[in-house]
Specification:
The protein is of the alpha+beta class. It is built from five helices and seven strands; from the N terminus they run βααββαβαβαββ.
Length: about 190
C-alpha cells in the first residue's frame, strides 16, 4: 500500500538521506567539502528545525507498506528569502561558508525543492505517484503553479516532468549547476 503523509521531526534522519540523493553536489558546495556524513548532518539539522526551506514542516514522505520509500519538499516560492535565511546562518556559523545562492524559485509558484526515492524503491512508479499527488493536491485543488528545476544533464527527469505537463519557462543557475526551470499550470 502506498501512502503520503506530512513528515514528522522524527523522520529527519531518513529524510536527510533521501534529500542528499536529490541535492548531493549542492549540499557538498554548501558545506564546503565532499563529505556525505557531514552533508547528511547538515541537512538533518535543518530538517529538524522549523521555518526553513528544508524543515520537516515543508517535507512529506511516501510510505510503501508502512516503510519510508521516498520524500519530497515543497514551499511557497514567495517565501524563499525568509526560509533560506536560517540555512545561510547555519552555513555561516557552523561551516564558515558565506554564500549567496541564486534564487531557484520565485513568487507565484509552489516550489518542488526535492523529490527523492531510495534506490531499492526506484523503478516502481513512486516518482510518478508523487508528481501526480502534487499536481492533484497543489495545482488542481489549490489552483497553484508548481515549479521545479531540472539539471540539463538529466534528460530522463525532464522527460518525466514533460509527460506530466510541466513546461520549460526559463533557465536558472543554482550554485555551480545550470538548470531548466519548469512549471506546471492547471489547464495549460
Amino acid at each position: 500500500m502506498i501512502e503520503i503523509r506530512k513528515a514528522k521531526i522524527e523522520d529527519a534522519a531518513i529524510i536527510s538521506e533521501l534529500m542528499l540523493f536529490a541535492m548531493r553536489d549542492i549540499a557538498f558546495e554548501f558545506i564546503g567539502e565532499k563529505n556525505e556524513d557531514k552533508a547528511k548532518y547538515f541537512l538533518r539539522t535543518l530538517i529538524e528545525k522549523e521555518a526553513n526551506q528544508y524543515s520537516y514542516q515543508n517535507c512529506s514522505v511516501l510510505l510503501y507498506d508502512n516503510e519510508i520509500a521516498g520524500s519530497f519538499t515543497i514551499y511557497d516560492g514567495a517565501k524563499l528569502d525568509e526560509l533560506r535565511k536560517p540555512v545561510l546562518e547555519v552555513l555561516s556559523t557552523v561551516y564558515n561558508q558565506d554564500i549567496q545562492p541564486e534564487n531557484e524559485t520565485e513568487e507565484g509558484e509552489i516550489y518542488i525543492d526535492t523529490i527523492s526515492i531510495f534506490p531499492e524503491f526506484r523503478g516502481k512508479g513512486f516518482g510518478n505517484y508523487i508528481l501526480d499527488y502534487l499536481i492533484e493536491e497543489v495545482a488542481n485543488k489549490q489552483d497553484k503553479v508548481l515549479g521545479l528545476l531540472v539539471d540539463f544533464t538529466n534528460p530522463k527527469a525532464k522527460k518525466l516532468y514533460e509527460s506530466k505537463g510541466f513546461k520549460v519557462v526559463g533557465e536558472k543557475r543554482l550554485m555551480s549547476e545550470n538548470h531548466e526551470h519548469m512549471q506546471y499550470k492547471k489547464g495549460v
